[in-house]
Amino acid sequence: xxxxxxxxxxxxxxxxxxxxxxxxxxxxxxxxxxxxxxxxxxxxxxxxxxxxxxxxxxxxxxxxxxxxxxxxxxxxxxxxxxxxxxxxxxxxxxxxxxxxxxxxxxxxxxxxxxxxxxxxxxxxxxxxxxxxxxxxxxxxxxxxxxxxxxxxxxxxxxxxxxxxxxxxxxxxxxxxxxxxxxxxxxxxxxxxxxxxxxxxxxxxxxxxxxxxxxxxxxxxxxxxx
Length: 225
Known about the structure:
By secondary structure, this protein is α/β, with parallel strands linked by helices. It is built from six helices and twelve strands. It has helices at about 25-35, 40-60, 95-105, 155-165, 180-190, 215-220; strands at about 20, 65-70, 75-85, 85-95, 110-120, 125-135, 140-145, 150, 170-180, 195-200, 205, 210. The two termini are about 25 Å apart.
């Protein structure tokens, strides 16, 4: 039996693109470990992904600007901070992106939602688009593109390209697990896009799956395999 693969997502010796943010909060890492287990059933997998997505939402929105407004508490008036600036759009990369979208909307209920449908060609591993629906005013918003796995990076780069083509200039990418190959591909295509991930795993296998990873995120979310 092969020895277990050690995963150290916050290792200081790992060379990552400067646009990468690894969110290594203990709660996220604990829940991710539970998701990685092959025996975790689909219902628990979905719940864990939703919880991690809510925690990631805090980090990805950390730089949202604030402004002071006057309010009245039960005791007196005061100047209190509220979120200011651009509105948000959550862009789910179908089909697995919906697993992150649910948790993000719990924290960001006022965000608009867009969808990009992509599938990976099994031979070339290139991204093939089959659906696109984005808010008309996405150019006025900050887009947060969601996909649990950043593997080859081809789908992520294609999704970001579609969002940019719609006029959006402020874009972030959120995933659960990234491979070094995917981070490199996305950074080379879109160096202005910051990637937020809970872990950076070892590598891709011959089929383009992240190792050690969690398997096929879509199949595990929906129980289709």
